[in-house]
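ERR on first pass: missing label on line 2. Operator R.T. fixed the label and resubmitted. Corrected input:
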Amino acid sequence: MLLSKFQTEVEEILSHYPVKRSALLPLLNLAQREDGFVSESAMRDIAKVLDLTPPQVFETVTFYTMFNLKPIGKFHLQVCKSLMCALVGSDDVVRWIKTKLGIAPGHTTQDNNFTLSVVECLGSCGTGPMMQVNDDFYEQLTEEKLGRIFDDLARDGTCPLKTGPFMYPLPLAK
Amino acid sequence: MAQYEKILLKNMEQPGYTGSLADYERADGYQALRHVLKEMQPDQVIEEVKTSGLRGRGGAGFPAGVKWGFIPKDHPGPKYLCCNADESEPGTFKDRQLMERDPHQMLEGMVITCFAIGAQTAYIYIRGEFRLGTKILEQAVQEARTAGYIGENILGSGLTVNIYVHPGAGAYICGEETALLESLEGKRGMPRFKPPFPATHGLYQMPTVVNNVETLANIPHIINRGGAWFASIGSQPKSCGTRIFCLSGHVKRPGNYEVPLGIPFRELIYDLGGGMRSDKPLKAFIPGGASAPFLTPDHLDVKMDFESVAMAGSMLGSGGVTVMEEGTSMVWAALRLMEFFYHESCGKCTPCREGSSWLLQTLQRIWGKQGRPEDIGILEELCGNIAGRTICAFGEAEVAPIQSTLRHWRDEYETLIREAQATRPRKKDIPVFTH
Amino acid sequence: MAASTTTDMITLTIDGKTATVPKDTLVIEAARQVGVMVPHFCYHPKLSPDANCRMCLVEIEKMPRLQTSCSTPVAEGMVVKSESSAQAQDARKSVLDFILANHPLDCPVCDQGGRCDLQDFSHEYTATTSRFNELKRVFQKEFFSPLIETQMNRCVQCLRCVRYCDQVMDVKALAPVGRGTLTEIKAFGTHELDCEFCGGCVQICPVGAITSRLSMYEFRPWMLKRTDSVCGFCGDGCQITFQTKNETLIEVNSTHGAGRNNGDLCARGYFGYHVSVHPDRLTTPLIREGSVFREVTWEEALELVAQRLSEIKTTHGPDAIGGLITGRCTNEDVYVFQKFMRGVIGTNRIDSSVRYGHLNGVHAMQRVQGTHRWTVNFEDVVSADVLLLVGTNITETNPITGLKVKEAVKRHGAKLITIETLEPAIGAISNIVNLSQHHLGVKPTAYGSAILGMLKGVIEQNGIDPDLQTMAPEYCKDITAHIQAISWSEIEEQTGLTSSLFEKAAKVFVQGLKAVILIGSGVLRTSGGFGMTVNLLDLLLMTGKLTKEGCGLAPLAEENNDQGTFEMGGIGAMLPGGKSLGDTEARNMFSQAWGRTVSDLPGSSLPQMIEEATNGNLKSLFIVGENPLASLPPSSGIHQALGNLEFLVCQELFMTETAQQAHVVLPACSYAEKDGTFTNTEGHIQPVRKAIEPVGESRPDWEVFSALSVGMDDPMEYLDVKEIGKEIRNLLPGMRTLGPAPLPAQPDSSAISRYVNSDYKRDLSARYQLPPRMSSGQGHVVLMVSQSLFHSGKFSLKAKGLMQIQSEGKLFLHPKDAVRLGFDEGDRIRVFNGLGEVYTKVAFRERTPEGVVVFPEHFDREIRRLLPYTVDPETQVPYCKLAEIQLGKIVAS
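pass 2 clean. output:
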């Protein structure tokens, strides 16, 4: 059972709330981090911990777009396509990815490494076009940058081009 | 170029400033909290914030002190503070910077707010995609807890405030305060009808204040320097203080700019933002996030304060200013935003739920040169049937791009429809559907 | 806010009409009261407002925009415009336009067509044209459940179904899945619906999105004839409406506001109606010839029965004949039956299914409070501030009374104390102990000890009513002394619960201003049941609550007319009206009225009749609708007793195990085919109405008794049921059908005084001692044979809808027990004790406590062989629902 594996974390999460159901999103996050998606058995486990029925968990899961109900590739590429990013070339990014990885939105590469999704605004409108890969943001994307990111990810599982603590524009050096 | 004193971004713009507790303390951090605990009563804090004229920085612009004042004083059960860090209004990316670069500033504001309203528990509802921000905040809370700024008996005063970081999971609507509360309760994030308001029936039906990150980050400064000082900045009497405007789109230097409320858009876009990125002139701009109606070059000298922008037919909203250059299709821009709103409509209210897909499909047809002359009338009618008839402001928001682009650039719609008629005569007329 | 401090009534105008309503009333309800119907989808008076459909928008003066009348409370001087507001009318029209845009407009094949809110409002707002030229949203059709059909393209997403399932039922089986316009109602993942199948979602859906599969495509609403009647399953007495097309039973439902159930039903009520039209129904009288039955005419059958009964009466005396009738019959049937037995046959050897347990409650109430009825009603349950449930398993036995408890707790904040063989656990069906603030989970053998624990808790915190101490000091002293002679450690050992739990629960009980105790089969059908019930009445007395308005004891009747059967004289020792046979005045009154002498020889209970038949003293039994071979275990000796009879008549719907032994079988009508009255568990008498013609040649029971009396040359003839009712009311003026909300019976102070001054002593010591422990050996568990939510006796096994939900019996046990014993879900295992061994499948259920296994009584054909049988010395109630057993894996040979 997933939750016994993370018992300390689960207890810590539960301790934050006077009403158990509040722990639902955090526990679903935990489940997805472990499995890459939210499985039926995870939903049942979580329902049990929170005194909910499985349908109550299910209705909540399906409301939030971050939860995947099916397994996805190792790296989830989420390209923002909302207006602000679209103004500065997010459609190009999707096209470049198609050229480089051969996948269209909703698809996963054969090696199961990359799944592409186009998503709505991720809060990087000043530094678009951008994409989120798993936990990390990659901003001000160019075709060249993308190539490097994919190479690094495939090779190292991470890439130094990811954004750190955000500040833009950077203060002018005196 | 005019130079303005920065309040919220001041620390983080210092070279080497990491946002750690040590850095924050070196920059006189947590002095406001010490002062409050030693010298002030909760009511005095609320009064000070009322005096400051601070208005909510999330979008609705409700006076923060007034909101706090609604919390019943004699309530026997727990009260809550929720920090709205679900920054997801397209065009807005300031809270992300405040959280990731100077988390203690907002934490200090939160502890003071809890003191003022009598809350012992506060949650930071941060949008789920902000993984880095979540980590940074969790660390900062831990640091502050260890140092005695958060937790039980804060700085020996007897005050207890616990702060927990609660990530969302991808739903724009959770930025609406009652939807946020539903989501925090582990439910589908659907707005509640009001009244009752969160001030009396909020989280777990208990009195609750929901404030935006930027709003809370201002609190320590208001305590340190006085409400009157804050009120003297900006565009008195109703738009006090500074605001962080998020500049995006076709400008040379997009990004976050903290300026006093009331400077003209022209100054933000051309002086701070360096003007248009290419030689194409400005065609349109959105003054306050995706929910705000589009404005035109004629509005560049409108002052960036709540009232002036409202007078111009839009709103200051979340502070996201998106600039579009000549050549950008306004129908396309409206369509892109409509796609967003369709995707994010929670589905609770009939007009918004059904109207969003109807609007989207109609716009898609027009943009895809399948429009019909009557479509413009239909769009206008649908917008009228959605706005003002839903529980939350999403209804108004989703029609704003269409209504405003129709107002200022109706000819673009007409041209597309005319081209549709001319270039692709429909094989057969689709009859008006009769049930 | 300050305006209404002096008055709780608010005056406002709606479309120019003045309404004066209590404060907190919603505008939509105030409007209804002055005849302004505001259209709506999502609003329902049973549910908290959600304001999602936006159909009920109204214009309210001084408010900036249109307001939803379903979520806006009235205010003094408010001026509301509904139909008179062009703006509101325009908004509603646009809402319809939005809904219809994606609606499939498949009214021709929609079962809701003709009674659909969307149709009606579309008509009202002449939404005839649409400018929607886009693609309609289409949901993939998915199989939802064998009983419930969903057609999500028709859904208006008002979420009434989801909210009902959560707020009213506490089941939470429905999930709105997805977001925005793509939201659809599902169960869990791609799984079929698994729930209580109350049908509430079907009933509350304003459109055709959720419909019943049992009646799918079989009707148009305007073809249906409605017959309001009363459900024939449990004692809750829900008002149902039979919907028939010609003579075909199409569906059963209940209207919001109707009956004691306020329109709510359970699976049995909603999906169980096919029991009346099952192909196995007996359609002609049958006479045994050797080992087979021959179909005969009514004349031949009646003549034979009349002749044989007359012979036996002449040869062996009237007491050689006994009668047994089911609590499923109408009051009129039971009345005529006992009149036939007492008057025409001349015996008091009459018994009924009341004997199986309900009698314990009725007798105890008669003894302590004088009246044999509840002194509370459902309204009191809903408005109680403290509820104590003991051994009810209420959701499964009396689901609608269960809803009253849920409403009291969930909507009105009542405190719930439960002494139940249930563990708090979430499952497919609701679990009342999940709502309990003070749950005392005990094994089914420990109810008596737990009740003593409650009493001890009350006494130890000086919870005894001071007035009672003045009025009956000796009673208080005696009970206190007996209770104090029992130590906490003994109670703790017997119940497995700590004394502090009892103390806390007792404190809450004592503090209750309106306290109702509900008891069920765990008390009434369990060894010591009578004593436990009296002890609970002691608890009410001691805390000063027995005579307090809104307080009282409520024994739950398991069968639809258990209460009425008792009141009609369906127990030999009790004449109609609950009067004792020993009461000469009463006996004389009936003798005179009937023109036949009522014997003063005491009657016999069913256990006694079994004995008498075995001894050869009872020669004949006339059994009406009862099936003792299936109700009692072999250890009762019932097989031998029936085998000994010279003449057995069974009047039945189906060829039951008992009927198979009969010499003559007479086909009777079900509740759908006859008129009469049922008395529900509250003591509320309600009209039963004929919805379809009798199946085959079946006849209403009373007609058969009447015909037999003619055959026996002692005619008691009635023109119709009404005439019987008139006779009953003439004799017993209180026995009339009452209004929609009956006043509960009043406790009789002379009876109370008799009890507290002397009568209590009679069995005090026996009642105030811990029951003997079952000699639990290593590896023994307690088997509890009990009622399932989806069935009612053996009767419902003929209901096709219910059989689709539950078609076989499985042994339910806690997963931890299963792990301990090495069982997997679905395993076939061996169950055994000294009485025998049987094999059954196991299923896991977390609400079943460890050390207890539960088997549904409806399927107990095999397992009842393991049940020991004892009889209550005071009330002659047979106890045969519990056994000590062992479980074992089947070892392949």
